[in-house]
Amino acid sequence: FSDKLKKALRDLYSDLRIPVQQSIDEDACPDANFEDMFVELRLDEFNATIGPEIPDYRDVDYLQKRMQSSKPIQLAQLFDKIHDKDVPRTVLILGRPGVGKTTVIKKMARLWAKGQLWKGTVEYLFVITLRHCQQDRKLTLADLLLDGLELTDSERTAAMKLLRKQRSKLVIIADERDANKDVELNTMLSSITANVMLPGAKIVIMSRPRPNLPRCNRKTELYGFTHESIQKYIHQFSREDSDLEDFISDYLQNNVNIASMCYLPVHCNFVCVCLHD
Prior knowledge:
The protein is of the alpha/beta class. The chain has helices at 2-14, 34-37, 60-68, 101-113, 141-146, 153-165, 183-193, 227-237, 242-254, 256-261, 265-276, and strands at 17-19, 31-33, 43-44, 72-73, 90-94, 124-129, 170-175, 202-207, 218-221. The protein is 40% helix and 13% strand. The longest helix is centred in the N-terminal third of the chain and has 13 residues, at 2-14. It is globular, with a radius of gyration of 20 Å. The model has no long low-confidence stretch (mean pLDDT 80).
């Protein structure tokens, strides 16, 4: 059954796509492969003192100086041992609205499904999007982990028994942006991170900056685009239309205030859409 569960998870996550808005027309929103549109976002070096405040993305100079004074990390390093500290079990990633947290979650799941992330150390990976949970029924841990899979009741029971035995090889990625609106989800998430449910499993929590953040062994910060990232995004957005790419690039070079919006990925897409039209 272990092989069946792994295959079901890899099938679920290997074909994740990014909706790409290319026109003001709401129907013109094709889905693109990650390889076509994803631009690497910068994760800042680990910092135990990160609080709920993240610099305003309109303050481009401050943001750039902050990035230049710190070191980036890669997704594969989230659970690495650093210096003489223990290997972390829980990692909190903070990011402002629109910075691309959900896209990074999809990227992690897709890389794992293709055997390109945490190979040999993570046998099972689950993405929990708490804002999509049905809050009109009492949730169990099995509901959070397995609702996206087509499993019979007996298979769900077998899956949870297997996961409890192999919890050290399990990663749970939670997008908790709306968890604070539901007491039950908050309690369940806290139980997971507090090592009560599935003790030994590794947890990644994506969160907006807010008071009363979950307690985690490691904290990091998700920034938006760098100048180079913006140029790469424009190139991929233009889909080999060199005239469109040149037009957008030239416009941003001559309109600094508009260009400063593009350090936030969702704004960069909005600007590209408007200039495309």
